[in-house]
Amino acid sequence: MKLPRKIRFDHCPTRRAFTLVELLVVIAIIGLLSTVAVVSLGSSRAKARDTKRLADIRQINTAMLMYYNDNGTLPNPTTLGCAGGDTWYCLGHANAGTCWRNNYNGCTALDNALAPYIAKIPDDPFNNTAYNGDAYMYIWNGGTQILHWGLDEVANSNLCLGGFSGQWSATDGNSHYWCQLYVKP
Question: Mind listing the pLDDT tens digit for each residue in 26-63?
């Protein structure tokens, strides 16, 4: 049995390497694709936060309606003893808590009134107290009770659960959006 001859590589044609320009073009394309991916991921995060907000508002609205079924009225912050006589209250922020850039206060009595119907009042997913839209609000205005919340995306009736929406320009120079939903038994 004859063994094969040793293969010599010095007769192979020279391998061609990538040029610097080709490498730079590939790096630029990869950079562009990663930028597009990061931008779309940021948009996905905003949509996810808005979806979470809708689920939270549905949960709070259900708790309010359950309170109504047991008490014959929606929670009235004034009769519950909430301080300040405000008509806007931060849900889940207790007496010491503030929200929407410290413009509004929480109320422990209001939170406690909802406690049998909701294990924990959810907080806005962004949860940045230096930012308008950092908490869910309950507006008590006599015969009108409204849930109010901020959004990352442009507000519309679908994102507002059939309620109404608006826009404000905050101190950061960006446009922000909000929704309001009447709490109707």
Answer: 999 999 998 888 877 767 888 888 889 999 999 999 99
DSSP string, 100-153: TTTTEEE-HHHHHHHTTT-SS----SS--TTSTT-S-EEEEETTEEEEEEEESS
Rounded Cα gap, residues 108 and 94, in angstroms? 4
- Reduce the secondary structure of 89-112 to three states and give it as a string: EECCCCCCCEECCCCEEECHHHHH
Helix, strand, coil percentages, rounded to 5, for the chain: 35, 20, 45
Q: What would the mean pLDDT of 104-129 be, rounded to a whole number?
A: 88
- 120/184 Cα distance (integer angstroms): 22
Summarised one tens digit per residue, pLDDT across range 38-48 is 877 767 888 88
| Global pTM value | 0.75
Closest by CA position to 177, among listed 185, 162, 166: 166
Those residues with Cβ within 8 angstroms of residue 34's Cβ, 6 or more apart along the chain or in another chain: none
Give the whole-angstrom CA distance, residue 147 versus residue 151: 13
Residue 64: CB atoms within 10 A of its CB come to 23
From 103, 50, 107, 47, select the one nearest 76 (Cα to Cα): 107
